[in-house]
Automatic annotation (TrEMBL), chains A, B:
<feature type="domain" description="HTH lacI-type">
    <location>
        <begin position="23"/>
        <end position="75"/>
    </location>
</feature>
<dbReference type="InterPro" id="IPR028082">
    <property type="entry name" value="Peripla_BP_I"/>
</dbReference>
<dbReference type="InterPro" id="IPR010982">
    <property type="entry name" value="Lambda_DNA-bd_dom_sf"/>
</dbReference>
<protein>
    <submittedName>
        <fullName>LacI family DNA-binding transcriptional regulator</fullName>
    </submittedName>
</protein>
<keyword id="KW-0238">DNA-binding</keyword>
<dbReference type="InterPro" id="IPR046335">
    <property type="entry name" value="LacI/GalR-like_sensor"/>
</dbReference>
<keyword id="KW-0804">Transcription</keyword>
<dbReference type="InterPro" id="IPR000843">
    <property type="entry name" value="HTH_LacI"/>
</dbReference>
<keyword id="KW-0805">Transcription regulation</keyword>
<dbReference type="GO" id="GO:0003677">
    <property type="term" value="F:DNA binding"/>
</dbReference>
<dbReference type="Pfam" id="PF13377">
    <property type="entry name" value="Peripla_BP_3"/>
</dbReference>
<dbReference type="Pfam" id="PF00356">
    <property type="entry name" value="LacI"/>
</dbReference>
Length: 355, 355
DNA sequence: ATGAAAGCGCTAACAG
DNA sequence: CTGTTAGCGCTTTCAT
C-alpha cells in the first residue's frame, strides 16, 4: 500500500535490506542496457562474449536471480505443475496414507529432473473439478491428480474442458482423461490367487469398490475365485474407506462378525495393518488362522507385524510416467491411459505355502 | 515461439480451444472497460453495484479466473511459500521418511487455511543455502526448510542475508535463523529415563549427533544417564543416518557387535524398526532382551512389530507453527525459535514395567 | 461511477 | 553487437 518509492534506495547507504535486485540494477552497474543483460543472462550469442561473461559474473556476485513472474508473463510460459491430493471432506483427514505421500515424492523428483516446479495442494475429494483452478488461474500449466476417488464423472468433464490433466488411478471404460496407474486387475488377481493357493477358501475383500482402482482389484479378486471354482460372497466384502480414522471401526466390526474367514485381500497396506490388529483383537492369529495380503508395498511394509505380503506398486516409476504423460499432453500428443505392471511381494502375513 | 496471433480467434468459431480468457474479453462482453472489470472482480465499491454483479456473473459463467502472474507482478505481491525437503546427495535418497512427509502434509494444511500456495521441492542436504533460490527468484515469499541437517552454518548465513526463513529443527546456541521444533532434549530425556526405569543399564543411542536435533536428544540421553548415576559410554553410541538405505548395514553391524546392550534409544521410528530387525537377526527378542524406543510417533508406529514406544512429535501443530513463524517474520516481527512439547507414547517395544 | 494511461520486470522485434 | 521500444495481463492513479 504505502510503498511508492520509485528509484530511491540506491547503492550508497548500508541498509539496502529491502528491494530485490533486478535487471536494471545490474545493467547500470555493468554499464549496458537491460536488453543486453537479458540477452547475456539467457546465453544469447548476439552479445559479445566478453560482455556476456562480465554481466554473468556481476549477476552471480550480486546474487541476482531473475524474476520469474515477469519472465513468465512476458514469455507466456510457465514451468509449474500442480499436484493435487484429494482429502476426505467428511473426516477432513489429512494427506497421510504413506502410499500417496510416496507418489508425491516420486513426482517431485520427476518434475525437478525436468526443470519444473511443483505446486502441492489438496482438494475436497467430492469436488475434484476444483483442481482445475490451478490451470485456470495460470498458476500451473497442468494438473496431476492423485487418485480418482468417487468422481470419475468430474474427471471426464475436466478432460472435456481441455484441462491438461493426468490422474493416478485405474483405467475405466469410456474414460476421457489420461490416467496412469498400476495394473489393478492383475494386483487383485495375484493377491487372491496366492491366498487360494495356500488352501484358503473363505477369502474376504476389504476396500471401497466405488473407487475405480478398488473396483478393478475386485475384478481380479472375482476372476481368481472363478479360476478356483468359487464365486464371490457379498458377505465377505467390506467397503472400507482408505482413511484409517473411519476404517478402524468398520474393520473391527467386520472382523469380529466374520469368524469364518481364513484370508483377506486388503486394498492398502494401512488397511491390512488395521485388519491384522482387528483379527488379533478377535482372537485370531495372522497368518495361521487368517492370511492377509496388503496393497501398495509401502516402504514400511517389510517392518510391520508380521511383515506384509503385498502387491507392489511401481511408485518409483510412477512419478516419471505421470509427468511424461502430462508433458506429452501439453506437446499435443494424444496420450492414452497407461497401466503399469505390479507384482506380489511375499512376506509373512501370507507366506509361501512351504513357510 | 510461433504464436503471435494477437487479437484473433474471437467468439465466432467453435474451436476456441487455446487462448485463456482474460479481463479484456469479459470487459468487451460486459460492455465496460477493463478497469471496471478489475474493480468489480476485486469488490471495489467504486463500481455500481448492478455493474459489479453483472461482471461477476459473466466472469463466473465463463469460468474466468484471473491471471495471478500478472496480478502479482503489478501488485508486487505473492502468496506462495516454498517448502524444501533436503535429500542426501550421496545416496540420492528420495523424500521418504514418514515423519518428514507428515510435516509436509501439516504445512500444506496450514498454508491452505491461510490462503497461501505451497511450492514443494528438494535440495541437496549439503547445500541448504540453495533453498534461497525460491525467494531470490521471486517465486516464493519465503522458505520453510524441513530439518537442519549438517549445515547450521549455511542456515545462519541465509538468515544473515535476510532471507525469510523458518527451519524445522532444534534450537542451537547462537542461532540467527528462526527454528520451530519439538523439545529434543526432553525427548531424549524421557526416552532414556523410561528405559532406565525399566531396570536397563546398557542403553545404546542410535542417531547422528552431527545433526542438531540428534545432538540435543543426546543431551537428554546423557542427562538421564547422569540422573541414574551413569555416564555415557561412547561404545554404545552409533552415528547412523536417517536414510534407511545407508542405515541398515550400519545398524546391523552395531547390533551384531554389541551383544551387551539391553536397551536402545533410536532417533527415528524408522531407525527403531531397523534396529529391531537387526536385534532379532542377532538372536535377541524385543522388548525382553532389548527394549527399544523410537522417535517421531509416525502414524504407523502403533502397527509395527512390536508396536513402538516412541517420543511423540507434535506434527499436527507443527505446520501451523512453522507457517505462523514465517508470516510473522514477513510482517517484521522478530520471532525467536520455538520449542514445542513432546511426550513419550508407551507401547510394546519398551512397555511399562508392569506389562 | 467509469475510462484512459502508466507501469510492475522482463523479452523480442526493430533499428542502428 | 547493442540500445530503443513495445507489450505480456493486471491494478491504479488521474481525469473526467
Amino acid at each position: 500500500m504505502a510503498k511508492s518509492k520509485k528509484t530511491a534506495e540506491g547503492s550508497e547507504g548500508g541498509g539496502a535490506e529491502q528491494r530485490r535486485l533486478q535487471m536494471v540494477d545490474i545493467a547500470r552497474l555493468a554499464g549496458v542496457s537491460v536488453s543486453t543483460v537479458s540477452r547475456a543472462l539467457n546465453g544469447s550469442d548476439l552479445v559479445n562474449a566478453e560482455t556476456r561473461q562480465r554481466v554473468a559474473d556481476l549477476a552471480r556476485s550480486l546474487n541476482y536471480s531473475i524474476n520469474f513472474g515477469a519472465r513468465n508473463l512476458r514469455l507466456q510460459e510457465n514451468k509449474t505443475v500442480a499436484v493435487v491430493v484429494p482429502f476426505d471432506a467428511a473426516s477432513r483427514q489429512h494427506i497421510s496414507d504413506p502410499f500417496f505421500l510416496s507418489i508425491v515424492g516420486s513426482i517431485a523428483d520427476a518434475l525437478t529432473d525436468r526443470g519444473y516446479d511443483m505446486l502441492l495442494s489438496r482438494v475436497d475429494a467430492e469436488r475434484l473439478d476444483l483442481a482445475s483452478h490451478w490451470f485456470d488461474s495460470g498458476k500451473a500449466i497442468g494438473v496431476i491428480l492423485i487418485g480418482q476417488w468417487r468422481h470419475h464423472d468430474q474427471l471426464n468433464e475436466m478432460a472435456a474442458r481441455k484441462l491438461p490433466l493426468v490422474v493416478w488411478g485405474g483405467e475405466m471404460p469410456q474414460q476421457l482423461y489420461c490416467s496412469v496407474g498400476g495394473d489393478n486387475v492383475l494386483g487383485g488377481l495375484l493377491a487372491t490367487r496366492h491366498l487360494l493357493s495356500l488352501g484358503r477358501r473363505r477369502v474376504a475383500f476389504i476396500g471401497d469398490a466405488n473407487l475405480p482402482e478398488v473396483w478393478l482389484r475386485r475384478e481380479g479378486y472375482v476372476q481368481a475365485l472363478a479360476e478356483a471354482g468359487l464365486t464371490a460372497d457379498p458377505a465377505l466384502e467390506l467397503p472400507a474407506p482408505f482413511e484409517p480414522g473411519v476404517a478402524t471401526g468398520v474393520v473391527q466390526g467386520f472382523c469380529a462378525a466374520r469368524q469364518d474367514i481364513d484370508a483377506v485381500v486388503c486394498c492398502s497396506d494401512v488397511l491390512a495393518l488395521l485388519t491384522i490388529q482387528a483379527l488379533r483383537a478377535s482372537g485370531r492369529s495372522v497368518p495361521q488362522d487368517v492370511a492377509v495380503v496388503g496393497y501398495d508395498d509401502m516402504p514400511l511394509a517389510a517392518y510391520c507385524d508380521p511383515p506384509l505380503t503385498t502387491v507392489h506398486q511401481p511408485v518409483a516409476e510412477a512419478g516419471a510416467e505421470l509427468v511424461e504423460a502430462l508433458l506429452g499432453q501439453l506437446r499435443g500428443e494424444r496420450a492414452g491411459p497407461r497401466t503399469m505392471p505390479v507384482y506380489l511381494k511375499l512376506r509373512q502375513s501370507a507366506p509361501q505355502s512351504g513357510a
